[in-house]
Amino acid sequence: MSEKPSLPKGDRIAKVMARAGLCSRREAERWIADGRVKVDGNVLTTPAHTVTAKSKILVDGKPLPEAEVSRLWRYHKPTGQVTSHSDPEGRDTVFEKLPDELPRVISVGRLDYNSEGLLLLTNDGELARKLELPKTAWARRYRVRVHGHVNEAALEKLKDGVTVDGITYGAIVARLDRQQGDNAWLTVSIHEGKNREIRKIMEHLNLTVNRLIRISFGPFQLGNLAQGGVEEIKGRTLREQLGEVAPQAKKKPETNKKPPSSRRPKKQFKPRRKK
Question: 56 vs 104, 121, 140, CA distance in Å?
Fold first, then answer.
């Protein structure tokens, strides 16, 4: 009995679009639903479609760009910017404020309009997705200023998680740094990053957030990066910090030439002449 021919390996179309740095997976799925993506001449109606290296992919009538080497940047987001490529209300966006020399990038997660601090940017949508996954288990750490008097016992209970308005949040580590009159500074660490998570939990504790600064995301720190500044995380550091999630470096082409030997050639043995 003859074996069935093996199908060529491939990936879901949304993953391929994200890897090319064109958009995130979720955005890719929306674009497909809007009829903006063609594969081999056919308009896709579902993201449940596998493509291979031989597939001809068009987005808005243009060929899908080839995937580049994955890169990651730190950006110090100020308040008053939306973490989006466009805003229907006409507000400033993060991506409008980036230097012109940066390639097209997407954000790893988001920061609210009124939040500030560290925002990671990448040209690789698939890398962004991996860094956002809960299983990555990276802590996002914030400096938080609140209005109100802090109950430290209530902060301690957040380590067991909390449910607010029917939404369950995982363990939160919150520490009171100092109380100054009616305001206080806290350091808060979360792992999930749900929509407006810290603001909603503080409100649940009868505290109003009036400043929220992300100071780290996993191993990456805001440090002394100036507000509005952007700095690339170099490839070696990226690989060391990301481990298995790190993008693979391109292999250098092998050559057939052997490097010259540094060893001295052996002396040939010459027999003595008999006298």
Answer: 22, 28, 39
Does pLDDT of 270 surpass 70? Answer: no
Q: Which two tokens stand for residue 187?
A: 């350091």
Please, which residues have CB within 8 angstroms of residue 32's CB and are 6 or more apart in sequence?
Answer: 13, 14, 44, 45, 46, 47
Is residue 232 a part of any domain in this protein? yes
CA–CA separation, 217 vs 240, rounded Å?
A: 15
Put simply, whether the predicted model's pTM sits higher than 0.70 gets the answer yes
How far is the C-alpha of 43 from the C-alpha of 45, rounded, in Å?
7
Q: How many CA atoms lie within 13 A of 169 on its CB side?
A: 26
Q: What is the pLDDT of residue 115?
A: 97
Q: What are phi and psi of 200, to 5 degrees?
A: -70, -40
Domain count for the chain, please give it: 2
For residue 28, being part of any structural domain is answered with yes
d(C-alpha 126, C-alpha 198), whole Å: 26
C-alpha span between 218 and 47 (Å, rounded): 30
- 37 occurs within a structural domain: yes
Q: Which of 40, 87, 112, 165 is catalytic?
A: 112
The amino acid occupying position 194 is: K
Q: How far apart are CA 231 and CA 104, in angstroms?
A: 15
Active site annotation includes 112: yes
Claim to verify: residue 141 and residue 198 sit in the same structural domain: yes
Q: What is the DSSP letter of 261?
A: P
